Amino acid sequence: MAWTREEMAARAARELKDGYYVNLGIGIPTLVANFVPDGMTIQFHSENGMLGAGPFPFEGEEDADIINAGKQTVTELPTTSYVDSAASFAMVRGGHINISFLGALQVAQNGDLANWMIPGKMVKGMGGAMDLVAGVPRVVVLMEHTAGGKPKLLKECTLPLTGAGVVSMVITDLGVFEVGPKGNQMGLTLTELAPGVSLEEIREKTEAEFVVSPSLVRN
Amino acid sequence: MAVNKIYRDTTSALAGLLRDGMTIMAGGFGVCGIPSALIEAVRDSGVKDLTCISNNAGIDTAGLGILLQTRQIRKMISSYVGENATFAKQFLAGELEIEFNPQGTLAERIRAGGAGIPAFFTATGAGTDIAKGKEERVFNGRRYVMETGLTADLALVHAWKADPEGNLIYRKTARNFNPIMATAAKVTVVEVEEMVPQGSFDPDHIVTPGIFVDRIVKLDHVVKLIEQRTVRKRA
């Protein structure tokens, strides 16, 4: 009874605060936009140069000049602004984006993140991922707990890093982990379990060392 | 006006500017805001051994993808090239060199290049493979990597509207890398969807001032592609 992708996104959306500027990666993170609580105002940053990205257009109203960083057609909002790529990444690098949600291949217990390349396979490039994890003060990873039965939460990443010590929180289908303060190697704390998931199951499927929060939430 | 910046077609707009082995910047993100017509003219010129600086490599049938088809590109400096099968094939065969830059670092290197800044420090990529061999400094307890400014022989830019002076405005997310690339090359050639008379723009609204623009060509017809057509149902 682990969390579905939608339930992971809904849990992630609880990290949002009113007035936040937010960047969403591709995959499960994209779903977070569907779970913004009513009455909360969030501006979505799209690193190709759009702040205040709106929902997909109605059929027939697509505009080739309005796309998000996933190259999908989106729409304008009354709050939308457009900037060039350097200004867009000034928002990122300068720490002006409050929170970033992204996927991962591996996360290490010290907050290292690997999500851009697998040696020996075709490398597509890191796009804006390295800038986002280095510049955004709170980085939340959304990923399946394991891949092909192998843990993705590790003592050390074996794949090339996207960023060193950059992850703040990890939400998997099995639970939620907090990572010690950015750049600090305090390690992982398990703070929540998904419904029907036992501590034993998490321990079995996690290579990284972690402590269990005294106030562990069993959803 | 002493200098005429307006050229009648893309071939004449590039005349005398192309040579083998040169470095060309091309604006655009995916296929949004790419200087398609100018890239076609580069293809038709037959110039080769190009180093191209562009966020992406287009798709197989559009953008810089068409220069890959004809093997005119020797090296790409990009942040992401996922949507191009020709690229993958040539790269895996060792026929194409690629230098990946994080997207924000690529943008800032171009901005810096255009602004006469030879290098800067960024936390992006610190502690990763892309920092290898680069100078590092610690500021306020944090590691930063030195990245150098980027310039080119030629910048190819797509803008929405231009006036005869070369002042430019862009349309929505088709702006992306175009304005910064316009500042960073020895010569900047711009294709536009519309020419407007001098004085039409509110000077407060101009994004790229004419000082950065050398040649302008108005497109007869503009083809805009969509990579991921995503829509929602009407309620």
What does this structure look like?
The complex is a heterodimer of chains A (219) and B (235). Chain A is α/β, with parallel strands linked by helices and 219 residues long. Chain A is built from five helices and 15 strands. The model of chain A has no long low-confidence stretch (mean pLDDT 94). The model of chain B has no long low-confidence stretch (mean pLDDT 96). In chain B, helix 4 (85-92) links the parallel strand 4 (73-78) and strand 5 (97-100). At the A-B interface, helix 3 and helix 4 of A face helix 4, helix 5 and helix 6 of B.
How would you describe this structure in keywords?
heterodimer, A: 219 residues, alpha/beta, 10-stranded mixed beta sheet, 5 helices, globular, B: 235 residues, 27% strand
Helix and strand element order of chain B: EHEHEHEHEHEEEEEHEE
Quaternary state of the chains: heterodimer
Termini Cα gap of chain B? 54 Å
How many separate helices of chain A?
5
Helix content of chain A: 10-25%
| Uncertain regions spanning at least 5 consecutive residues of chain A | none
Structural class of chain A comes to alpha/beta
Shape, per Cα inertia axes of chain B: globular
- The unreliable regions of chain B are none
Biggest β-sheet of chain A, characterized?
10 strands, mixed
SSE topology:
The complex is a heterodimer of chains A (about 220) and B (about 240).
Chain A: H1 5-13, E1 21-24, H2 28-31, E2 43-46, E3 50-51, E4 81-82, H3 85-93, E5 99-102, E6 106-108, E7 113-114, H4 129-135, E8 138-142, E9 146-147, E10 150-151, E11 153-154, E12 169-171, E13 175-179, E14 188-193, H5 199-204, E15 210-218
Chain B: E1 6-7, H1 10-14, E2 23-26, H2 36-45, E3 50-53, H3 65-69, E4 73-78, H4 85-92, E5 97-100, H5 103-114, E6 119-122, E7 136-139, E8 142-148, E9 152-162, E10 168-169, H6 178-183, E11 185-195, E12 215-218
Parallel strand pairs in B: 1-12, 2-3, 2-9, 3-4, 4-5, 9-11, 11-12
Antiparallel strand pairs in B: 6-8, 7-8, 9-10
